[in-house]
Write a structure and sequence with these properties.
The chain contains seven helices and seven strands. With about 250 residues, the chain is of the alpha/beta class. Helix 1 crosses helix 7, helix 3 packs parallel to helix 4 and helix 4 packs parallel to helix 5. Bound molecules: 1,4-dihydronicotinamide adenine dinucleotide and ligand LFPNKLMZ. The site of 1,4-dihydronicotinamide adenine dinucleotide has 29 residues, from helix 1 and strand 2. 1,4-dihydronicotinamide adenine dinucleotide (NAI) binds next to helix 1 and strand 2.
């Protein structure tokens, strides 16, 4: 069964990793898909090629989510090229691992701007369009297990993920009357570009694997099903919710 037949889905940071898996997952479920991305044109082009190979329409638009204008332009282009906006997957994010005591101000500020401001502007722009269309919609934000637990080298990052989680809760209230549902997924440790260097240390990787009751780290495709589900009408009465997708890592105390 295709869960997103006839829908138009927008994905930020859709060229690699979790965003790409969500974009392809949405296309597999019958959606036309627009992706935003920031670097590496070839990754974005190959993602669009995969979407089109599945028989769906797709396009990629380069832009920095930290800037409000990127959000308005992304939504405007989606409207012009795909006709409407039904779903936003707010996924773009960075995690430049760094110690707390000597955190450079620019690394701290950029992490807030991309992860938190970016999610806010994108969700607001998509929601404005959904309200204008008048037939509801769904927003799925990629938060993190890090919204709930800390990380020594993520003191600038974890508050942004708690912020995204909180944004979905408040937006669910603000947008419920318009039939727009807002939920978040909370991935555990998923093997992507964002943690390639951090997990290059075999000891660290082994340790992270042992934390997961299901016995392995995640792959981007592990997020596709939960994101498609929350975006779809199967989740018609789900809003303000947060879904851990972590192989059980969060509950693994001992
Ligand atoms: N990989 C993991 O273990 C986890 C990742 N996440 C979150 O998942 C999201 C996606 O990350 P991954 O797929 O893991 O890594 P990734 O590095 O493969 O993907 C990040 C995506 O965001 C885009 N991006 C980065 N800065 C941007 C900007 N300023 N404007 C527009 N796009 C920008 C990149 O181009 C890329 O497409 C992030 O929000 C991250 O915080 C959450 C929990 C765990
Ligand atoms: C980038 C990290 O590996 C990843 O980011 C998160 O949000 C997870 O908590 C992991 O630490």
């Amino acid at each position: 069964m295709k869960l997103l037949e006839g829908k138009t889905v927008l994905v930020t940071g859709g060229s690699t990793g979790i965003g790409r898996a969500a974009a392809i997952g949405a296309a597999l479920h019958g959606a036309d898909v627009a992706i935003n991305y920031y670097t590496r044109d070839e990754d974005a082009e190959s993602c669009v090629a995969e979407i089109e190979a599945l028989g769906q329409r797709g396009f990629a638009l380069k832009g920095d989510v930290a800037l409000p204008a990127t959000a308005t332009e992304f939504v405007a282009q989606a409207l012009e090229r795909l006709g409407k906006v039904d779903v936003l997957v707010s996924n773009a994010g960075i995690c430049p691992f760094h110690a707390f005591l000597d955190m450079p101000v620019d690394v701290f500020e950029r992490t807030q701007q991309v992860n938190m401001h970016g999610a806010y502007f994108m969700c607001q722009a998509a929601a404005r369009q959904m309200v204008e269309q008048g037939h509801g919609g769904a927003i799925v934000a990629v938060s993190s297990i890090s919204a709930l637990v800390g990380g020594e080298f993520q003191t600038h990052y974890t508050p942004t993920k708690a912020g995204v989680h909180s944004l979905m809760q408040s937006a669910a209230i603000a947008l419920g009357r318009h039939g727009i549902r807002c939920n978040s997924v909370l991935p555990g440790t998923i093997l992507t570009e964002i943690n390639k260097d951090d997990l290059a240390d075999p000891e660290k990787r082994k340790y992270m694997e042992t934390r997961v009751p299901l016995g392995r780290l995640g792959v981007p495709e592990d997020l596709a099903g939960p994101i498609v589900f929350l975006a779809s009408d199967m989740a018609a009465y789900v809003t303000g919710a947060a879904l851990l997708v972590d192989g059980g890592m969060y509950v693994n105390l001992q």
